[in-house]
Amino acid sequence: MTTSPDPAVLLAYGADVGAATDLARAWDALVSWRVHRRAGLRVRASGPAAVGSRVDLFLGPRFARMGGTDEVTELIETDGLARLTYRTRPGHAERGEQTFELSTDGGRLRLDVSSRSATDHRLLMAFETAGRLGQQYMAMRYVGSMRRLLVRR
């Protein structure tokens, strides 16, 4: 008996987003979902991210939107490091998890976005490469969103 290969795809993207002194502001922008909103997602959350809390994240117009409900599984905030992870809930266009990690080094602040997911959305399944490019594009939008939020004082 053979087993199917894991259909999940690992995506990782990160970049410098500002000064290390902005870590607290960047963390607040993540847990308040402002980074996601600024990246173009429709966000429905009852409040800031908390382990066990759920958030609805959607992209696109109502008639063709993709996304679903996610559940926060990890929040870590230590000296020079902050991490938010959430996983998809049943009914989401993807199955998997996404992590946002803020870290400081040499006076600079870095945001790394990583995800491991497989799609359940028929359109994304039919155009798998386009779907993966879309995920990469969103990771880049998260980083750009964070940069823009940190520039605004």
From TrEMBL:
Residues in DUF1990 domain copies: 13-143
Name under which the protein is recorded: DUF1990 domain-containing protein
